[in-house]
Amino acid sequence: QVTIDKIAAGEVIERPASIVKELVENSIDAQATAVVAEIKEGGISFIRITDNGCGMDKEDVPYAFLRHSTSKIRSVDDLSHISSLGFRGEALSSIAAVSQVELITKPADSLFGTTYRIEGGKEISIDETGAPDGTTFLIRQLFYNTPARRKFLKTAMTEASHVGDLITRLALSHPEISFQFINNGQSKLHTSGNGNLKDVIYHIYGREIASHLLAVDYESGGIRITGFAGEPIISRGNRNFENYFINGRYVKSNIISKAIEDAYKDFTMQHKYPFTVLHLSIDGETVDVNVHPTKMELRFSNQQQIYNCVCEAVGKALHQEEL
Ligand code: ADP
Ligand code: MG
Question: CATH number, domain at 230?
């Protein structure tokens, strides 16, 4: 079991940011309204994720670390779980296989909490404790038992920036959840969770961008697109500012990027790329999910429709003053 978990971990856990991603997605699934992600040394030596979600009962804790154990019933078409597709119930077992894990968890309706320790896939202890409602995961010494893999990690600074980017995207995709990111004891990001996307954009990108946003609100043929398109004057030097989410999930798609850029074609961009934060809601059946889950690339079965909708939605926002 331990060996199989180590191999499986290679698929899911590439770097500290992959752990943070899996744990925070679990927090979101657990209905948390506030999540704190703290790392030290880029997350290589220390990751702590704290949420105020539903917590786990003591008897469920060891079970959650077994491979293929999940409390979530999912259908293959369920787009909201695209990135964990194929890895159902594998995150915790994979993380525990390659690090030293301490878990403190307590459901609100339970009298006591549970502290659980598991290292390199071996259970160390399970105890009753006093704890706040919710769940805290502590992950120490990533890849301590797989030195070959540890060698592939980049510098702490690079790994930390991957985690920061990830939290940024999670904050943009879930304005209704408060996210805090702490790197080496310094708070880098702290969103309010008040549900206002513009507030989150202001927090992350600052005043210049937040004060030049055009609202996107579009619906056609089962595709709904909301969010913001930046005015052409705040265009940036690379594609990194084209943010878009499909059913709450951050993705990369050449089709969508192209559609966004084409919508700006009528404006002088001087080889620059637009700023956007777009939320697309699409029927799960129209998206091909047969793509490696840890990669964010995905393909659509109806590319042309997606292209047209995005281009039209953004174009409409850009031209709204002229109407
Ligand atoms: P999956 O998310 O695919 O179910 P995981 O290995 O990520 O698999 O998690 C296993 C189980 O552990 C989850 O199904 C859930 O029941 C429980 N769990 C994990 N993280 C949390 C959390 N933060 N709060 C409550 N329950 C959690
Ligand atoms: Mg999970």
Answer: 3.30.230.10
